[in-house]
TrEMBL record:
This is Iron chelate uptake ABC transporter, FeCT family, permease protein. GO terms for molecular function: transmembrane transporter activity. The keyword Cell membrane applies. Belongs to the binding-protein-dependent transport system permease family. FecCD subfamily. It comes from the Bacteria. It is found in: Cell membrane. It is a multi-pass membrane protein. Keywords: Cell membrane, Membrane, Transmembrane, Transmembrane helix, Transport. GO terms for biological process: siderophore-iron import into cell. InterPro entries: ABC_BtuC-like, ABC_transptr_permease_BtuC. PANTHER family: FERRIC ENTEROBACTIN TRANSPORT SYSTEM PERMEASE PROTEIN (PTHR30472), PETROBACTIN IMPORT SYSTEM PERMEASE PROTEIN YCLO (PTHR30472:SF19). One of its GO terms (cellular component) is plasma membrane. It comes from Cetobacterium somerae ATCC BAA-474. The chain crosses the membrane at residues 12-32, 44-64, 76-94, 106-123, 135-159, 179-198, 232-257, 269-289, 296-316.
Amino acid sequence: MKNNEKRMENILLGLLLALLIAAAFFLLVGVNKNNFRYLISTRGIKILAIVLSGTCVAVSTLLFQTVTDSRILTPSVMGLDSMYVFLQTMTIFLFRRTLPLLTTPIPKFFITVGLMVTVSIFLQKFFTGKSKGKLLYMILIGMIVGTFLDSLSNGIQMIMDPNEFLVLQSSLFASYNRVNTTLLSIAYIIVALVFFWLRKDMRTLDVMSLGYSQSINLGLDYKKLLRKNLTIVGLLVSISTALVGPVVFLGLLTVNISKELLKTYKHKYLVVASIFMSILSLIIGQLIVEKIFNNSFPVGTVINFVGGMYLLWILLKERRIG
């Protein structure tokens, strides 16, 4: 047991070292005495945004996979990403000219986070219960709602003014080139409070990963913990998405790689590894976009492509095993 824990700690140290090297390279490449202040300040904000969104996505995906007992599901199946696209579309379409205040960053951030969390809580209230079937029913409803919102968004985008559509497009893809520093500070405070709320749940999450029946037999209040964790998932996904845009496959990619590396059920290790892996992936993705492709497309495109390929590999692997 001690050897296994030592191995996991060494893996975490290796990930941290790789993360620090990647972050240092990202901050310092191309820096000289003439541009030092400008590049360090702008890249520092990007690093802070990457750390926040990577943490939110990693933890939310890990919690969601724990409560759903599935390695291929992400919080996006609850329709939160589709809700984000719909809210951005409706805000610009309805209020950009009549109530421009609502389209400014801070009001739009709080409106987006509030409505996305409300949707998450709504799904829990009406569709979660004391069985896995109820949880899967919630996921099914979330997917249906997501498809419906996607259709509405596409329809509205087709009749939008071209200039408004261009403004909308810039907010529909994950990007770290337009982060609002005030929102970033607010988001860090909210996420810190969420982690304070979650801090004592690592061992209960270990038990929840055993499944509903085993959790009940071991004395857990499964329904209460399920709702708490799904609320946290909704909060983290909402904050990350509202701040930088949706990154659908990042959590799927990094959480599964962390599980493969550590080969453990203990969330105190999985949470840290997933966070490190997410931040490292985002930094590498941002470097690829900036230095190789000259910012010709957002980092979310790279992450979603790699994550989508990894999802296909997982499905093919599970099929061969089955």
